[in-house]
Protein 1
Amino acid sequence: MSTAAAVVQDFMKAFREQDRPAAERLMAGDFDFTSPQDDHLDRDAWLRICFPTADHFDAPATTLQLIEVDGLVIHRYEYVVDGIRFRNVEALEVRGGQVHAVEVYFGGAVDRRS
């Protein structure tokens, strides 16, 4: 069985590559996604609303830290949109090789264009 951190990496890869079948395999039936913009989206809503947004980023997100503790994975990453670099943190609950919950915490811009 994969470690929780490996499941998160595979889930992020599926999002980045827009591989919906892979994402669906990694998502539990009780999947729950929460962010400052989305309050408790279920699996179907996340696939409809969030999954197609990978093209909003200038390049794939870069993982800065991936910390696993008892099935909870903290993923801190950096991404660029319109030339501006941002950092976010996600807490992902992984059980039985599937992602059950994602909580996203948005960070501000790391740097700005002059």
Protein 2
Amino acid sequence: MFFKKFLIFFIAIQMLFTPIAYGDSSLSKHRLGSGDTIDIRVFNESKLSVKTTLTDTGTISFPLLGELKISGMTVGELEDFLVDQLKGEDKYLINPKVTVSISKYRTIFVTGEVNKPGSYTYIPGLTVRKAISLAGGFTRRASMKKIYRNNDGDHRDRQNKVSLNDLINAGDTITVEESFF
């Protein structure tokens, strides 16, 4: 009996002090795009730390490195890219520590048969249902089955049919069609 209690106690202590290894699922999958505002911090290098918004071409201006095309990168990819650039051929820094965070996401757009069509602030985890709620809900003529999403960056103007519980991304446009009845 004593051994069993000791074993349970030992396992509990091990679980408490064992670091949790997160896989790629814990990393941001958000792809940076025009209109996102990011904070870049370089440890112990305040002159290299900037807050900037991606331009319409998906670029930023960064001290020492100039204009950089970063559209389509995740936060983690951008951190790795900046570390490589800062310790690259010109060796600006020996062992740079870079962190990037998103301080403001680009907006989403909700159009069609909603009470208040327009642009709205994106929040990670936003679903179609929540986006429509932000836009004042459905009008009386709205079709709850004809809801479409245009992904930001898809220049083919292709609409994908979505359901109310589907997740959306920053920059997406949600269109609610009219019902026939």
